[in-house]
Specification:
Elements (H helix, E strand, L loop, with lengths): L1 H7 L4 H21 L2 H10 L2 H18 L11 H9 L11 H24 L3 H28 L12 H23 L4 H27 L3 H22 L4 H18 L21 H9 L10 H8 L13 H9 L1 H24 L5 H16 L9 H16 L6 H11 L3 H6 L3 H33 L16 H8 L35 H16 L4 H13 L7 H11 L7 H9 L8 H17 L4 H10 L2 H14 L1 H9 L24
Length: 682
């Protein structure tokens, strides 16, 4: 139910907090009520190497958050933010604390669900039921997405944006089909049982057709190839166990699978002369490629891709979402070294599960599905970013938990220990004091404590997620909608309604249109104005790459004539962190032209000239914003703008002057309509 609900709800903090709370209750219940034999089987599967592999990503993300004691090791943005805010800020590897914390919490939920699934799937009957449930979820989500796409409903309302559930559904249904075939071959079933395996086979085929149709409707042939590669692994295990058993037969099947694997890449279109992590992507990747070239070996911080994107994207692409591949996002956020290590762990995990599927008895299909999923997800990571979606990641976690739980059979010692633990006679009690039993009892207690620790972590992160509110302004990163009136509204907001220190969740009503107070800038700064400034400054302590927040802080500082911040430094950071965000250009022009000291700063002059050039030549629709900024500027700002516009478009300068109020007449002339849409012919 948790996985299905994750696909049907938006990815917001409160929803994820509810899911974490449900997982916490389930894990805590497992820690208390799980049987001793199940604990022994779980401990046998959770080898130290696997625990280390699961903990490594969380440890690295936590290290990205830790303040670095040595100057220069962290991201340079923290030094620039510290100078602009006149406050000492600790350097970190991550460029955004909040997004990295959210990435850690997301990863914790994924690992917890995988662990919980493994606990439940230790029982064979439960494992079989879990497989049916996962197939049903994948097929249901794929069918829903396909119907929405065929019906032409607004794609913005479609919560399933990737084909990862369909690809995993193909893999799961193929494993379910192989299991049904094995069940039919193993024994001569009576008529009632025959109907059982035939029903399973029919349902598996139906689910497979639904998932395949979902991928084909989206025109994503590369996704089909990725899913088929995983299905080849499952079918290879089936063929080896039934027809080609032995070293030579296994080698032949593996060689055939390798040839098919390499041949599949000739079908998938691959771009030349580009980074390997985005070579298979069909989406626009210009900004991603620039980010890959500028990324440090340690990465920019988990979850930081959308925060860094405004710096690298092209002009006028604010509304278009550039979707990176999962591999590119990992390389940017975590570093290429981490990506290489993750690829090695994935290959080793796929090989381990493949080997265990050959050594397993009748229930080998689960390990085969896990091996195929590792291959498919590795290829999907080079094609799209759907693996990071909350529902898709939970579905993958449940799949791998099921695979690892059933990758090994129960040993005789585990069975005997289970019987001894349930026995109450004196002999068994006396035998339980020997060294092997003391070791088992110690492992039992440590495993329960480990599950309890996971539950406590989930409870803590649920409380954090449920108490958090959206980013300041409630606006998506890179899509601000601030105006001068909203600044005035914030300036006049009572301090009790402003966010407290460290709270990143205050919401500014974008539709508020209060009357502009022309004397607001001359009023002395009081507690209300300080609260307004501190609200944005506190948010920038955690997210120093938010160009919209730097601009809002500069605008309020200018309106209130605050001396606590360097206005020139604030404006520079607004340019550097969002240079091509057209939504910021009107307000930024208003602020810079209203600041008389900008003319004495050569670097800022060039940045302003770039904005004016964009408004005049590249984006004519922004000419009215330039005119409004010019009209609200002071004498120095008008003179500075006159010099810039006379260099770029002297004809438009005359039109601007024609639309400005003539002193002494009390009248105002509007420029011709063509000013807002086209340039004057020369």
């Amino acid at each position: 139910m948790t996985i299905a609900s994750a696909f049907a709800t938006p990815e917001v903090s409160r929803v994820q907090g509810i899911f974490s709370a449900l997982l916490a209750v389930a894990v805590l219940g497992a820690a208390i009520f799980i049987s001793s034999s199940a604990v022994a089987r779980l401990a046998r599967r959770l080898r130290p190497l696997l625990i280390l592999a699961l903990a490594a990503p969380a440890v690295w993300m936590a290290l990205q958050l830790v303040p670095l004691p040595i100057h220069g090791l962290g991201s340079p943005i923290w030094q620039a933010a510290s100078a602009a805010l006149n406050e000492p800020l600790a350097e970190r590897i991550t460029v955004d604390v909040r997004t990295t914390v959210q990435a850690i919490l997301h990863y914790n939920a994924v690992v917890a669900l995988a662990l919980l699934t493994a606990v439940v799937a230790l029982d064979k009957q439960c494992a079989s039921q879990l497989l049916y449930i996962l197939v049903s979820v994948a097929a249901g989500v794929s069918g829903y997405a396909m119907l929405r796409q065929i019906s032409g409903l607004d794609t913005a309302l479609l919560l399933v944006n990737s084909a990862v559930p369909a690809a995993l559904g193909l893999l799961l249904s193929s494993g379910m089909m192989v299991g049904a075939l094995e069940q039919s071959r193993r024994i001569k079933q009576p008529s009632g049982s025959a109907l059982g395996w035939a029903t399973k086979l029919s349902l598996a085929l139906l689910a497979m057709l639904i998932c395949l149709a979902r991928i084909l409707v989206g025109g994503q042939t590369s996704i089909v190839v990725a899913a088929l590669l995983g299905m080849v692994i499952v079918l290879a295990v089936f063929a080896i166990r039934n027809w080609f058993y032995g070293i030579w037969g296994t080698a032949g099947v593996l060689a055939t699978s390798a040839v098919l694997f390499l041949a599949s890449f000739t079908i998938v279109p691959m771009r030349q002369d580009t980074d390997l992590t985005i070579a298979l992507s069909r989406h626009q990747q210009a900004a991603t490629e620039r980010m890959l070239q500028d990324t440090a070996p340690t990465g920019l911080g988990a979850g930081a891709y959308p925060v860094v994107l405004p710096i690298h994207r092209d002009i006028g692409t604010a509304a278009a979402r550039e979707r990176p591949t999962a591999a590119a996002a990992i390389a940017i956020e975590m570093g290429r070294t981490f990506l290489s290590g993750l690829l090695i762990v994935t290959v080793l995990g796929a090989a381990t599960l493949f080997r265990r599927s050959l050594l397993r008895g009748h229930d080998y299909v689960y390990a085969a599905i896990g091996s195929g999923a590792a291959v498919s997800l590795a290829v999907l990571a080079l094609i799209e970013d759907g693996i990071f979606e909350y529902g898709a990641s939970l579905l993958a976690a449940a799949l791998f938990g099921l695979a690892f739980a059933q990758s090994r059979p129960s040993t005789p010692s585990e069975v005997s220990y289970s019987r001894l633990s349930r026995s109450a006679n004196g002999v068994n009690s006396r035998d339980s004091m020997n060294p092997p039993m003391r070791s088992s009892a110690f492992g039992n207690a440590s495993m329960r404590l480990g599950l309890g620790f996971v539950a406590v972590v989930l409870i803590a992160q649920s409380a954090w997620l449920l108490t958090q509110r959206p980013h300041l302004g409630g606006l998506p990163i890179g899509q601000p909608a601030f105006s001068r009136t909203s600044i005035q509204a914030l300036s006049s907001t009572p301090s009790r309604s402003l966010p407290a220190h460290g709270d990143l969740g205050a919401e500014i009503p974008a539709t508020a249109q209060p009357k502009v107070d022309e004397t607001a800038g001359s009023r002395p700064e009081d507690g209300t104005h300080l609260a307004s400034l501190n609200a944005f400054a506190d948010a920038l302590h955690y997210s120093p790459l938010r160009g919209d927040l730097w601009l809002m802080l500069a605008a309020i500082s200018k309106e209130q004539k605050s001396t606590g911040y360097d206005l020139i430094a604030l404006l520079k950071l607004s340019y550097y962190t969002a240079p091509n965000d057209l939504a910021l250009l009107p307000l930024r022009l208003t602020v810079v032209l209203g600041t008389g000291s900008v003319a004495s700063e050569p670097e800022l002059r060039e940045l302003i000239k770039r904005d004016v050039k964009i408004a005049l030549a590249d984006q004519p629709a922004l000419r009215p914003a330039l005119l409004a900024a010019y009209k609200s500027a002071g004498a120095d700002g008008k003179a500075f703008a006159d010099n810039l516009i006379s260099e770029l478009d002297p004809g438009y300068l005359q039109l601007m002057h024609a639309g400005i109020r003539v002193p002494g007449t009390g009248t105002e002339f509007s420029p011709p309509n063509r000013v807002s849409g086209e340039r004057k012919p020369r």
